[in-house]
Every structure is written in structure tokens, then in C-alpha cells.
Amino acid sequence: MGLGPTLKITLVVMLMEQNVRYLHKKEGPLWYFKVYNFNDLRDLLENVTDKIRDYVFRGQSKADWELVSTLYQLIERARRTGAKHSSVERFVRLHLDRFKLEIRGRRGDNPPKLDDDELWALGQHYGLATPLLDWSKSPYISLFFALEEMNEYSENRALWCLNTKEVEEKNKNLSKREKLYLIFPDTDDNKRLLGQSGLFSKGPVMKSVMLG
């Protein structure tokens, strides 16, 4: 049973060539597949996308949105409104340090010490602008977020599919500052993420994941 005539999903497969069935277009390492009902989407995920267990997924309610973090967006807004251009690295460090101060005494008695990635993950949960993007190991959980607030004139939605094995291979030829890291939080501070089979990606702050 389909999800209705308003369903438009662009499935974007990153970094690995795929079967041409449902193929809409190719742009560099990105393969865009177009489907219009749930049965075709399931067929694409289960039969066309090879080794689905190697992928992580992200749903977005507009297919033309770039894969950029909320911290990227914050910095870009500040620049457009005339804020002085300072070192991105310094701004990011101060931003995280301020968050550390804000959460003192709010994590219960004797909370475990968190590294920077875990702090960013906790901040993401509470609405902090971070260099992280949410992903899920489940395409169907990600699809839920892509299809929120559907209506008769629904936007074209996107389900991004990132091959983790290919990311590992690409990272071998990149410097530490250029790499795309996949972060799997395992602390009790982020139960919502664990319940959604969730993880984060973190790359250079001022780059889109699809261009980084």
C-alpha cells in the first residue's frame, strides 16, 4: 500500500555506484533515485542498494536542503548580519566551553566525564548549535523524519544514504581536520538517540557533508 499521491522521495546514495533502477540523475559521487510510493522505496532499499547494513540514513523534509550542521548555519547567519570574521576554530572552542559551563550541576550526582564528541552529542539533544548531523542505522526511522507534516502540496523529501565503508576508505587519504567522523554515542545522557538507532557525523564545520 502506498503513502498516497503526494509522496515524493529523492533517495540520495553517497559514495558508491548503484544499480540504475529508479535512477533520476548523477552528480559526482551522488546518485539520485526518485520514488513515488512506499513499495518502490522498500524495493530500492532492499534490492537495489547493495549491502544495506553498511549504510546510515538521514531523512530531510526538503530534498534541496544541503547537509550542513546547525553550527555552520549559525556562523553563516552571523556573517550575513555583519559579525566580525574571526577564527572558526576559536569560535567553535568557545562555543563548546560555554556549553560545558551551562551544564555544570545539571547531569545528576557524579556524572561520567564526557569527551568533546559526547558533549556535542549532548548539546545536540538540547538544541545547541553543533557541528553534528543526525543519522540512523534504520532507513525507516529516517523516513519518518523526512515525512513529518505531510500535506496535499508536500515538498519533495529526501532520504540520504551514506556508505560507512566508503567513508572509511575515503578518510584514509584525508588529514585529521578533513575527515568525516561517524560518532556512536553510548552514554545514558542521550537515550532518545539510542532508541532511534542513532549516530552522528562530524566533519569540517564550514563544509557540507556531500562536498566535504
How are the SSEs ordered, and which strands pair?
Blueprint (H helix, E strand, L loop, with lengths): L8 E6 L8 E5 L2 E6 L2 H11 L6 E6 L9 H11 L7 H15 L13 H10 L6 E5 L2 H8 L10 E7 H8 L9 E3 L7 H5 L2 E5 L10
Parallel strand pairs: 1-6
Antiparallel strand pairs: 1-3, 2-3, 4-6, 5-8, 7-8
Description:
The protein is an alpha+beta fold and 212 residues long. It has a domain at 9-68 and 132-202. Helix content is 32%, strand content 20%. The protein is built from seven helices and eight strands. The chain has helices spanning 38-48, 70-80, 88-102, 116-125, 139-146, 164-171, 191-195, and strands spanning 9-14, 23-27, 30-35, 55-60, 132-136, 157-163, 181-183, 198-202. The strands form two sheets. A five-stranded mixed β-sheet has the order 2-3-1-6-4. A three-stranded antiparallel β-sheet has the order 5-8-7. A hairpin with a 2-residue loop joins strand 2 and strand 3. Residues 1-6 have low confidence and may be disordered.
Describe this protein with a few key phrases.
single chain; three-stranded antiparallel sheet; five-stranded mixed sheet; disordered N terminus
Provide a short characterization of the protein structure.
By secondary structure, the protein is an alpha+beta fold. It has helices at 38-48, 70-80, 88-102, 116-125, 139-146, 164-171, 191-195; strands at residues 9-14, 23-27, 30-35, 55-60, 132-136, 157-163, 181-183, 198-202.
